[in-house]
Amino acid sequence: MIKLSFLNLFRRKTRTLLSIGGIAIGVAAIIVLVSLVDGFTAEFNDVLGDFKAITVLQKNAQDQILSRIDVGFENKIETIPGVKAAVPELWFIPEKIDGETTGLTGFSAPSIYGLDSDKFFSTGSKGFIGELEKGAVLSNNDRGQVLIGKGIEEDYKKFVGSTIKINDKKFKVKGIMKADSDLVSNIIVMNLSDARELTSFPNDQINSLTVFLVDPTKDKQTAQLIELKFEELQASTSADLAAEFESVIGNLRLLAVAVAL
């Protein structure tokens, strides 16, 4: 029986090759898709490893870009005991960089991160910004200047002192961030006022707040207090973000295996 089976493999070579090809493609698809999902997980965990703060969004908002909160919450949250600083932020995807349409390309999509530079860098924390490899950090007086990630530097051939055109406005590159993760390497950091001009975002609103604490180990208690005091807000610790992401990644991993099968 075994001999007959092997003989049939060689008698019908086309069918045998097609069967082997189908199996090989299925196995390769499983390996590639699951590896991609695991790679995204590793990158996200690397970013969260340096993120020791609370993210505050509009209640039930899925992410920063879809969130809208009143800028007045910045001062209100800073009155909570143990809060070092509440940094206001704007997040958005630029339409064009240097005249090229950016499009939506998942984790590698360039994104604009507008923030109160003076307040952010005074905390001594990195947040979503990697360490600087070249140049200098931003201050609120640096209008028309940006920090860029390694991905932006390489994709658009930029250097400290060069010009980068975002949508229809030109900016000078003041610094380049050192980052091994695509989640950080494709960020363009600018001052809040510059980000508002690019998006025509209302002056009385922001997307989110990053809340830095005197004692980061008390993040869970502080996040709960923020939600208790302000019902229109949701506050997430780095552990909360990791759990949410792991849930999404788990579903993606199952989907990847299902597609491959």
Task: Summarize this structure briefly.
The chain is α+β, with helices and mostly antiparallel strands and 261 residues long. The chain is built from nine helices and 14 strands.
Q: Could you tell me how far the N terminus lies from the C terminus, measured between alpha carbons in angstroms?
A: 29 Å
Tell me, what's the shape?
Answer: globular
Low-confidence stretches: none
* Run of helices and strands: HHEEHEEEEHEEHEEHEHEEHEH
**Beta-strand segment tally:** 14
Rg over CA atoms, rounded to whole Å, is 23 Å
Integer average pLDDT: 83
Structural class: alpha+beta
Assess the beta-strand content as a share of residues: 25-35%
**Biggest sheet, open or closed, and with what strands and sense?**
10 strands, mixed
* Quaternary class: single chain
Helix count equals 9
Q: Percent of residues in helical segments?
A: 40-55%
Short descriptors:
261 residues, alpha+beta, ten-stranded mixed beta sheet, two-stranded antiparallel sheet, 26% strand, globular
